[in-house]
Amino acid sequence: MKKRILEQVLSDLKHKVQARENALADLRLKAFENPEISKAQAEYARVKFDALMKGVKNDENIKKARLNYENALKKYGYGENAFEYQPICSKCNDTGFVDGKICSCVYNEYIARLKNECDIEARAPFSFADSNTSKMTREQTDAINKLYGFSWEYVSMYPNVKKHILVFMGATGTGKSCLAQAIARKAVDHGKSALVYSAYEFNTTCLNCHLAPIDEKDNILYNLMTADFVVIDDLGTEPMLKNVTCEYLQLILDERLRSGLTTIITTNLSEIQLKERYGERIFSRLCDAKHSLMRRIPGKDLRLS
Fold this sequence. Notes:
Elements: H1 2-31, H2 35-54, H3 60-75, E1 97-98, E2 101-102, H4 104-118, H5 120-123, H6 138-157, E3 165-170, H7 176-189, E4 194-198, H8 199-211, H9 214-226, E5 229-235, H10 245-258, E6 262-267, H11 271-286, E7 292-297
Parallel strand pairs: 3-6, 3-7, 4-5, 5-6
Antiparallel strand pairs: 1-2
Helix pairs in contact: 1-4, 2-3, 6-7, 8-9, 10-11
């Protein structure tokens, strides 16, 4: 996703530059169809050449010829630099790169398109800045603050992180989904791809893959397998589908872990319920201390406060 978006931004910039250059060429061609402009420009060029051949500098004839040429342009509505390319970005001169690195003009457009493709505004409306602990108990405030601090640093350090599966547990309305959304939003702000699925949407995507022809399966799961961050929200609320729910969850967790990508799961289920519902293999993966971080957020539903 990221590579495709960046390549598209650079390609669009190249086409935009070419279009501007073509427009300038057309403008120049139109201007020099005017005999008065054409004659003045030709005379200016001749005088400059003669002076160059004679080794003359600051020739008054050159100044006079240039003034005549400029006046001819102005007479028909053309500025002195009308045919010179004026870059949109002064930093990179519309090349897209500064000192071999992506220019901010390209990066900003890349981030905007990444946000759009990840649908981050709709799927992750909550950010770290939206955190409000005024309705929380002391215990819950301490837990949330620690998790927010860890998560902020986690995104900043990515991909140089040790844990690639984050599981946030707790009762309904304790802030699990908000935390996951905040991580996803910050990840995209940092130029990383982040996708947010409800458990039901995730399950449906896996079912679609399971039922699809072989040559279409990879395309259906491509984003799930390659996004830097994938959030599966409210795991345990989806229907259990035979040969789909557990099998695909295991597959995607394992493949993303092997690729060093991060999967974030929120759930109302307890450890015992997770193990009973998804089996020993998935539970073992979720609570593997080497690769996973499992944290329970204490407290009651804040939305009822």
